[in-house]
Amino acid sequence: MKQVKVEIITIGDEILIGQIVDTNSAWMGTELNKAGFEVERITSVHDDALQIKSALQAALERVEVVLFTGGIGPTKDDITKQTLCDFFHTRLVFDEAVYRNIQSLYVHRKDVINDLTKAQALVPEKAVVIQNTAGTAPIMWFDCGGKVVVSMPGVPYEMKQAMTSDILPRLKKVFAVGALLHKTLLVTGYPESALAIKISEWENALPDNMHLAYLPNYGVIRLRLSGESEDVLMLDFLMNQQLDRLKALLGDAVVCDEDVAVEEWLGKLLKSKGLTLATAESCTGGNIAHLITKVPGSSAYFKGTVVSYANEVKVGVLGVSAESIEQEGAVSQTVVEQMAQGVRRLLNTDWAVATSGIMGPDGGSDDKPVGTVWIAVCSEDKMISRVYHVNHRREQNIERTTQLAMLMLRELL
To answer: DSSP characters for 195-252?
Structure first.
């Protein structure tokens, strides 16, 4: 089955100089994949006519669908519309329907209707115009010898509205796309190379229409199995069969079989068991709590955190022994265990997680170099604590310690 390929081209100096982050392409890629299209390439270009035309010409040689975002506003730097006119050898014409749409959007703000906003109703004569129900810039669809070029606004909510309500449904009518499915396992306990060796025999035996991707993160590797077929139900069945074999091979190393963040999966587990959690964070500075509370509904199982960065907070709030800190140091097994026990009692939870470490770049010693981290997880009658040497830059150390702490909690749950 031939997959219909798409190229996304984002236009705007602000993307290339790092003034804004291109979130449009990530969202579009996700939605296109769900609809059965394959994103071949994502390209970003300046607000420059030659660059836009060159990128479009190259894209049409590679793919069946080209999707533009950006550069169709009312100001002088928005040149996409005129550039597409030049590329498709057409001219701008006034579209009354577009103008009525603009007027309807600003029915209570007539002062907004000026020469610039009115110029938004100028559209390429050869384009199929799709009304932008969320903004003034119209969506332009060009048929190009069996291929399709679409120009959309760069404003994220306008682009998403256009893609969802118009562009994706139209593309699915034009192109007979088959099923493109992705299924994910979260795996822990293996370096990427060791995992590849472990599952090599299984991976080599995959059918031709399936392939595996390794997506490593701190402490966790996402294994994404992708498959293509015209029969979506059969593909789904066969992919589940393959994943069942893989799960049997990896055993307890499989964290879950959903493409979710560890904190989301952990939250589901805590909620399903009716358990509560608190954290006592020194070196992670509240990052564990931050990730947990990003998950909607986390108030059902997460009570709070004590960011005990200073030793006096460890002693005065969490009840850590000042003698233990003096004799063993804040980064020690005894102290981190006392931190976990202290916050569990303080916030009256079923479980607690505590971290204490040296994140760097300074503060290390021969006995405890930068990257030394102690993590403890406890309940009323259980306690595990471990030392890790994350040994990276400060931000990476914090992220990796956060993941390790959540994985340790998962281990006990």
So the answer is: HHHHTHHHHHTS-TTEEEEEEEETTEEEEEEEEEES-HHHHHHHHHHHHHHHHHHHGG
